[in-house]
Amino acid sequence: MAMGKVTLKPATFADLSGWQDDDHLAAFKTFLKSCDQMVEARGATSKGSKASLAALVTACRAAKALKNPTKATARAFFEAQFVPHHVAHKAGNGILTGYYEPVLKGARKPHGRFKTPIYRRPPDLVNVVPETKRGATGHRFTHMRKTASGLVPYPTRDRIERGALAGQGLELLYLADPVDAFFMHIQGSGRIDLTNGKSIRISYDGKNGHPYSSIGKYLVRTGQFPADKVSLQSLRKWLRADRARGQKVMWKNASFIFFRELRGPEAEGALGAMSVTLTSGRSLAVDTAYHTLGTPIFVSAPQLKQASKKGGFSRLMIAQDVGSAIKGPERGDIYYGSGDKAGRLAGITNHPGNFFVLLPDTTKHAAQPGERLPWTKIKKAAR
Predict the structure, then answer these.
(1) Which of 268, 301, 340, 362 is the most buried (most CB within 10 A)?
(2) C-alpha span between 184 and 259 (Å, rounded)
(3) CATH classification of 7-97+270-381, choosing from 3.50.50.60, 2.30.30.40, 2.40.40.10, 3.60.150.10?
(4) CA 189: distance to chain centroid?
(5) Which are the contacts of 103, defined by CB distance < 8 A and separation ≥ 6?
(6) What's residue 353's pLDDT?
(7) Where are the domains of the chain?
(8) pLDDT (tens digit, 9 = 90+) per residue, 39-49?
(9) Residue (of 332, 360, 339) closest to 199 by Cα position
(10) How far is CA 58 from CA 43, 76, 154, 155, 373, in A?
(11) What pLDDT is stored for residue 135 in this prediction?
(12) pLDDT in tens, 320-346
């Protein structure tokens, strides 16, 4: 199977180093979260040889038919329903980074130190590509502004922070630190502890459409920061050391994110592009030009030791999110969870890695709605 210059080479589960030691039940539960939204994720299914949505839905029916799953039956499920494929390309390796949900203090109204606004989605903002494909568009606009004369580019980050949206009542809440706000934009979500004692969650709800630009790469390229010292923590410290200098550098990233407050069941955790709650260490952001959301992907990153007690990262994950900076066949962003500990792990994750994509085995029995599935075979294999 080929995807342009990328080839998916069939493998066996025995070829996956660390497969037998993984917690397949945790991966199974994460996969199930995607199943309820799979039909609504049609925009995430791309051309090429990736897992088709129909095949994934068939696997979902099989997953839902497995009652009281255990680690053993979960492993047997994946081995019965999928075939691993190595993602082969000229570079040989991909890059893994991490993201998380910041926990910050904020206020509904501006007062005291809470003066940095977080904006809700403007009514004149329109999508020109599906949200699930915004990471696969290259340098094209993903969103634009609707005007009487047609679509025009939305204001850049620097223009918005200089007041381009002032007076429109779009302020959702206020944070104390513009650097915290900047990095929350990059993460795409946040848990906010309000001054009234309540805690809320906010999540990505669109962007101004301009391509994302890494300020870390900019600082390295311009000689202002050593390449081997770049991390979320070191960048945050550098930006705060000189506020005026930091603001100018943050403006180099023209992309600007809009948020919405999550309510009800949605507010139980950070949401991914499939509108399901992300699972720490199991949810993966991918480039949907290469991978269909909902696809299980076994990630192998031997040098990524800080994220695993066993040394090296070998884990079955589920493609459940996208990101403007996540571009490439083996470019993945690991969701680490909420809070400072997750942030520290995310901030120092930048390691080579490889993907084994689990594609549904179309030669196996494909159950129709209401048909009884032959789980005897899977249960025997799990013993």
Answers:
(1) 301
(2) 10
(3) 2.40.40.10
(4) 11
(5) 190, 191, 192, 193, 338, 339, 340
(6) 94
(7) 7-97+270-381, 101-268
(8) 555 444 444 44
(9) 339
(10) 18, 16, 41, 44, 11
(11) 64
(12) 999 888 989 999 999 999 999 999 999
Do you know the residue count of the chain? 383
Q: Does residue 345 contact residue 308 with C-beta atoms inside 8 Å?
A: no
- Joined together, the tokens standing for residue 141 give 């606009």
Rounded to whole angstroms, what are the CA distances from 240 to 108, 234, 235? Answer: 24, 10, 9
- Residues 6+ positions from 233 with CB-CB distance below 8 Å: 344, 347, 348
Q: What is the DSSP letter of 311?
A: S
Identify the burial level of 363 via C-beta atoms within 10 angstroms of its C-beta, where 0-12 means exposed, 13-18 middle and 19 or more buried. exposed
Predicted pLDDT of residue 139:
64
The single residue listed with the structure tokens 């490889």 is 354
User: C-alpha dihedral over 310, 316, 322, 323, to 10 degrees?
Assistant: 20
Tell if the pTM clears 0.85, that is, is over it: yes
DSSP state of 8: E
Report which of residues 71 and 309 the model is more confident about: 71
Confidence (pLDDT) at 377: 37
On average, the pLDDT of the chain sits at: 88
Structure tokens at 251: 């403006």
Domains 7-97+270-381 and 101-268 share a fold: no
Which tens digits make up the pLDDT trace of 98-153? 999 999 999 999 999 999 999 999 999 999 988 877 766 666 899 999 999 999 99
Question: CA-CA distances (angstroms) from residue 92 to 7, 47, 158, 329, 353?
Answer: 11, 23, 38, 11, 9
Pull the structure tokens for residue 349: 């994750």
Whose CA is closest to 284, among 33, 9, 64, 76? 33
